[in-house]
Amino acid sequence: MTATLPADPAPKAPDERLLHASPLHRLLGRPELGSVIGAVAVFLFFAVIADSFLSSLDTVLYAASTIGIMAVPVALLMIGGEFDLSAGVLVTSAALTSTMFAYEMTANVWVGVFVSLLVTLAVGFFNGYMLVRTGLPSFIITLGTYLMLWGANIGITKRIQGTVSTKSISDMQGFESARVLFASSIDVGSFKVRVTILWWIGLVALATWILLRTRWGNWIFAVGGGKDAARAVGVPVRRTKIGLYLGVAVAAWISGQHLLFSFSGVVQSAEGRGLELHYIAAAVIGGCLLTGGYGSAVGAAIGALIFGMAKQGIVYAQWDSDWFWFFLGAMLLLATILNSWVRKRAEAAR
User: Fold this and answer.
1) What's the angle, vertex CA 71, arms to CA 68 and CA 73, rounded to 5?
2) Which pLDDT tens digit goes with each residue over 92-139?
3) What is the dihedral angle through the alpha carbons of 132, 136, 137, 138, rounded to the nearest 10 degrees?
4) Lowest CB count within 10 Å: 50, 75, 201, 240, which one?
5) Residues whose CB falls within 8 Å of the CB of residue 19, separated by 6 or more in sequence, listed in order
């Protein structure tokens, strides 16, 4: 009688995270590589054809920062596999809440700012909660929120203030200190550093740390790559998605306060429509995939920088501003194609 030995188990495939990759392959795998190439090309283009472009870089950075503050959390949301079409109008809602609450209650401006934060977070929680409870696409959920906020902004403002614009709160207590935090600037020689640039840099650093150094970052990539698989390995999918919408809400609150305190405490209730497309475009140009699971905060920041350079460069080149949208659309397509090509090359080289 002979004993049958068990067959040797099939060799396991090596963990790809432990495979050695050359610096070139690691560089090709970065999601923001395409946007860096695009940013350099756009910078050189306008530096050559627009005389005042190089001397007005502070204005270019300011334009980029107003988009970048929102593009960063929107990019994280897209990495998590979702959209927020209400982000642009939510910025205006945050500004309107601050100014109308402070004016009507004759309260310190900071009270209005705090109430605005609570209201904005409530809208972000609503988006996230409705998404995870109903299972409907985020496109439908946030489109509904967009329309409700748009109508509420105009309707409530006209009902309370009598017009589509708010009353000025520039002479109220707390206005100057709030303006310093949200809409001031520092002169460094001839270069004017707007405070929005500091907010922008801070948010990029915070988002990059979350994505690359925390468990939350792993959860965001996991739910964007496949929520069912993520849930199977213990990722709190619902909590992660609601948290991402809360992140967008906080950034909308910051942008809304900048909008308010940049214009002497007066806000037009119809502002903000269409801005959500700017934020999404910046994230896509920066390398975020529409299908989720791939992207970076740095890439979204570079996408916003391209956006700012194109917006101001067309003005300095004295082109018809109507061409801005054509230029932006072409940029979006080229960046998406370039990012896709780079990613396929990186995957093929592994």
Assistant:
1) 120
2) 999 999 999 999 998 899 999 999 999 999 999 999 999 999 999 999
3) -50
4) 201
5) 350
